Sequence to fold (234 residues):
Amino acid sequence: MDRDWMRQRLEGFDQLARAYWGIRETKGDFAGARKRLFETEPTVTKILQCLDPQMSGVEVLQEDEWRGLVINTNAVRRGIGILADMDEWATRLAPDAPSLPADQFHPWVWDAARTFWESRHYRAAVHAAATSINAHLQDKLGRRDLSDAKLVQEAFSDKAPEAGKPRLRIPGDQTDPGVQTRQRGALQLGQGAYSALRNPAAHETGDLAEQEALEQLATFSVLARLINQCQVVT
Fold:
């Protein structure tokens, strides 16, 4: 919605109306002003309908029985008032919603992403966070032969550890169904994060929208906390 354009068109119509009545009062030639009013009226009507559906039936211009104009300037000025306050409504009347401060993400994520984020390179910020988690996971397991989704798969596998293949285990009784469910969920989350988020961040062109990138960083932050909390079994 181009609010500046809408405001300009409404204010322009209001000025035309004032000019029209000024010419009428001085008994001048108002034909040109009348013509311009009719030319701009359809757009003004559309704008008012867009701003307030209750004004969908409002007629901005009418002709009386002597072909004089009846101009509904109140509706036009109401539209101008709506436009003037719309930004403030969005801020001050919006329902309270939780915020997501990025500097509270897991340090593996935010420390790696911060520089890119501050320079508004959002895709690079996501990629840096994923790379950081991969490096910390390699260090935790003492492995350099795997990375990304394959490393996560090996780390959270429910198979017993093997020589050179330590595993991560969610804290708790490993026979508890709830712990087992979290273990499977951590595996699926990690693989999904690297396949669905890290790979596009590494290979696709064009930047991410800020909100989308923030959500992706939040996903990696959850993964980082899970990895950090897990025990290594050998």
Notes: The chain has eight helices and four strands.
